[in-house]
Amino acid sequence: MELNIPGVDRKESAPRVLTGLESLFGDAGLLSSLENKALGLLSNQASVNRRLNSAASLFIADRGLDLRALFGPQHGARGEKQDNMVESGDYIDTTCGLTVHSLYGAHRKPTPEMIAGLDVLVVDLQDVGTRVYTFQSTLALAMQACREVGVRVVVLDRPNPVGGEAVEGPQLDPQYASFVGLYPVPLRHGLTIGELARLYNDHFGIGCALDVIAAEGWRREMLFPHTGLPWVMPSPNMPAWDTALVYPGMVLLEGTTISEGRGTTRPFHLAGAPLLDPVKLAGKLEGEGLEGVIFRPASFEPTFQKWAGEVCGGVELHVTDPRLFRPVASAVALLAAIRDQRADRLGWREPPYEYETTKMPIDILYGSPELRRHLGEGGGWRRLAEGWREGEESFLELRQSYLLYH
């Protein structure tokens, strides 16, 4: 079944969108603002232009720019760390001789020593539109560190691959803030990383010297195929742009004993566990009236992580209409259906998880203990989803002041 992406005619070239990186190097005035400044660059393997030249190589090649240090988020500046919660260390990049500071390891917030002597920290990271994607926390902590020592932050913006209109899911309870969510925003926030930076800096009070260089030509209704940009996986288990479609909900499975498809070629699209009946599970979900998605019965055997080497019964999510699809509701409905079929299969992962050692992983992912308690009491997904509405509406109003695109 072909994915229905309104506005994309496969017989014609997609509209041209310029990332913040391309906007910077295409504008002499913008580029001159970074000349004669000591620069740091927070980026990874997905920080490229449409010719697939890396941001680091562009900064190094420009004789007017003085790049002093590189910084890498989770999975490393080269994206080489396959699994989650695998730390990186600092190292010297042999191609350019610069130190690469890891911000996912001994330090998640840059130390004063890391940014000593810098005038500007440039950030170019491809976000995926979900609160728990750790690049957003890395950005916020870097902004905090820069404020403390007077370093300016310049964010090179990139499109939100799943669009900028839809907002869905629970807001984070501040008591459950962690590295997978520092601020009270919904699971699917509908912002670009540059807009998030503006929200963090103003509304949540970071207060650093901040500039955002916008992505030219991007509009809120655009999904990633509309942009004409190449997709480079920003993390190893985000292999294709449509993984980001299901991620806002399916990432919740990381807090359970159900496999979220890690160790397969379809992470976050596949879900299941041994002894589940795929046909019954898919049939139950198809009867829930969830639009824009088909749940196909599936069996799979992960090669690593949960249930590695064991055959899991479950489903694969096939998104047929991204405009109608509600990823968070779909994932919660999936968990409820698994509980109803085999309550003994739905367990909760124990800490530690993403540097949190006491709170349950599902609670920091969801943003509160509500999901765990509700499913434990036998509740259905619809009541939970109804409870998100007030927070979704208030966030839509709040974010208006920080939007860069229409």
Helix/strand layout:
Blueprint: H1 20-25, H2 28-32, E1 38-43, H3 55-61, E2 66-72, E3 91-92, E4 99-102, H4 112-115, E5 120-124, H5 135-149, E6 152-156, E7 168-171, E8 186-188, H6 193-202, E9 210-213, H7 224-227, H8 243-250, E10 270-273, H9 278-286, E11 293-300, E12 312-319, H10 327-341, H11 361-366, H12 370-376, H13 381-398
Helix pairs in contact: 5-6, 8-10, 9-10, 10-13
List keywords for this structure.
globular; alpha/beta; 406 residues; seven-stranded mixed sheet; 12 strands; three-stranded antiparallel sheet; 15% strand
Notes on the structure:
The strands form three sheets. Strands 3-4-2-1-5-6-9 form a seven-stranded mixed sheet, sandwiched between helices. Strands 10-12-11 form a three-stranded antiparallel sheet. The chain has a two-stranded antiparallel sheet with strand order 7-8. The protein has 406 residues and is α/β, with parallel strands linked by helices. It is 28% helix and 15% strand.
